[in-house]
Amino acid sequence: VPPGKHGGPPVKRFLKKRKRPISSTSGWHHFDVSDIAHRWASNPSSNLGLVVEAFDAENENLIVMPPTSGIDEGYEPNLDLRTTTTATHSRRKRSTGLTCDEQNQFEACCRYPLTVSFLEFGWDFVIAPKWYDAYYCAGECRNEGMSNHGHSSVVQQVPESRMIGNNPGPCCSPVRMSNLRMLYFDHTSRLQLTTLPRMKVVRCGCS
């Protein structure tokens, strides 16, 4: 928070504080700071920074900052800050595909939940995320379905006698996908951040 009337450095105020026994300090530690982030978004001038500290029982700072070497190498902290934004709705109503789950299933083309765990694949080099929501498309596509592709609609009107192969009709498949940011160790054990294209299904349709 800002300093007092007499100036000086900003004053630290605890947002989240957590104590862990030494035996369970490895791995990721999650701190939800969404409340303060909302306040920062509405009043950006109040954002004077975010400080992450870790102290042991003797009040020694456990965070090792780069550059590191020797016994400290590989213990650099990684701060994984995840944010979400709320999409603004335009006046024009947009068509969206169906979203289903175990309780709500439809015969029509629909997007279903699917959680992919990199640990199950044996991808231990992935630092974050350890898992993500990939989703998948399933369901029937009839001629009067949700196809947004004129080509598919036209092909359905062509007699099968003119088709060389089988014409199974439109199929339920992803029509919009999003990327996935991944933090991982490469073959030289260096930390890398990359963007994998088309890893998450956003919308399903018939094409």
From TrEMBL:
Identify the Gene3D superfamilies for this entry.
Answer: 2.60.120.970, Cystine-knot cytokines (2.10.90.10)
One Pfam assignment: TGFb_propeptide
| Chain intervals for the UniProt region annotation (Disordered) | 1-25
Q: What is its main location?
A: secreted
Q: Which family does it belong to?
A: Belongs to the TGF-beta family.
Where does this polypeptide localize? Secreted
What keywords would UniProt list here?
A: Disulfide bond, Growth factor, Secreted
Source domain of life is Eukaryota
Species source reads Magallana gigas
Question: Single GO molecular-function term?
Answer: cytokine activity
Which SUPFAM superfamilies does the entry link to? Cystine-knot cytokines
What are the record's GO terms for cellular component? extracellular space
Q: What is this protein called?
A: TGF-beta family profile domain-containing protein
CDD domains recorded: TGF_beta_GDF8_like (cd13751)
This protein's record includes keyword Disulfide bond: yes
**Annotated TM spans:** none
